Amino acid sequence: MTEGVEARVLEALDARRAVVNEALEEVLPVVPPERLYAASRHLLDAGGKRLRPAVVLLAAEAVADVEPGSRDYAAFPDLDGRPVDVMAGALAVEIVHLFTLIHDDIMDDDDLRRGVPAVHREYDLETAILAGDTLYSTAFEILLEAVEAPVRSVDALRLLARTCTQISEGQAYDVGFESRDDVGLDEYLEMVRLKTAVLFGAASAIPAVLLGADEATRDALQSYGMRVGQAFQIHDDVLDLTVPSQALGKRRGSDLVEGKRTLITVHAREHGVDVDRLLPDRPVTEADVEAAVETLDGAGSIDYAREAAHELAADGIAELEVLRDNPARRLLEDVGRYLVERGY
């Protein structure tokens, strides 16, 4: 990825993050009971890339074939020229993402998220569960108002509901994998598809549903999101091992220390590495992590994951050929490349 491509992607993401943040301020106010809604906003206020809602807005621009950033997202022209609130779709996707982060941190008993205490640490377990539930229901309420056409509204809601179910399925697989040493590569990729990629798929497809695109376009955009979403997660697994702790903003090799399965460790185990003995039983040091990374690298597992991420991203980008060649489509293509070449 050239510096020019990265600069265009970051500029596009920054511009859309700004308008999404402004809209989130309006739909997630702190009202009575204040503690519940403050907890709901806790991770929102901590920041975030807003990558998924940015994909919603870019996909809408690509489907409608309009100049990126040239239209009001709250009154966006559908394919018949009627106004649709595609920002509502972007907000619904991001709010679902926030909900999953809160519940994920509870299940993993994590202390930090986005550099601040996790919601269940900052508040308490009961409030964190309620905050996640509140965000979950709020997402559907917001999406319901996006378009007047009943069929499109129902289709969008069905897609988001199914996505939430699949995320839970993926999380269940992920939890189950921690107690297994026989997880296969296909099983791991399916878990990533469900836990992470389906929300990218929804982010790409929901605007096509709201704007009245045909089924082939909806399916292609959903497939784009699913594949680049899988690639995004696998690249994250690579970064967790290859980027220094200071740059990561968290401990390097944290997935390895916590015993989480990744494509890298699944591949290594299948190629004779005793993954369970990569790290010592005593408190793990940076040197221990470095030695483990060298072993995984020697097995070819890190390169395998890198190649898998790039192949998935390329497959996703190819799905965009269903769209007209326009600036927004080219930005979506660049986003797909950026997701597997980004650093921290």
Secondary-structure blueprint:
Layout: H1 3-27, H2 34-45, H3 51-64, E1 76-77, E2 83-84, H4 86-108, E3 112-113, E4 116-117, H5 119-122, H6 125-144, H7 150-177, H8 185-211, H9 215-242, H10 245-248, H11 254-257, H12 263-270, H13 286-298, H14 301-319, H15 327-339
Antiparallel strand pairs: 1-2, 3-4
Helix pairs in contact: 1-3, 1-15, 2-6, 3-4, 3-8, 3-15, 4-6, 4-7, 4-8, 7-8, 8-9, 9-14, 12-14, 14-15
Describe this structure as you would to a colleague.
- With 344 residues, the protein is mostly helical.
- It has one domain (3-335): Farnesyl Diphosphate Synthase (Orthogonal Bundle), CATH 1.10.600.10.
- Helix content is 70%, strand content 2%.
- The protein is built from 15 helices and four strands.
- The strands form two sheets. Strands 1-2 form a two-stranded antiparallel ribbon. The chain has a two-stranded antiparallel ribbon with strand order 3-4.
- Helix 8 (185-211) packs across helix 9.
- The two termini are 15 Å apart.
- The model has no long low-confidence stretch (mean pLDDT 94).
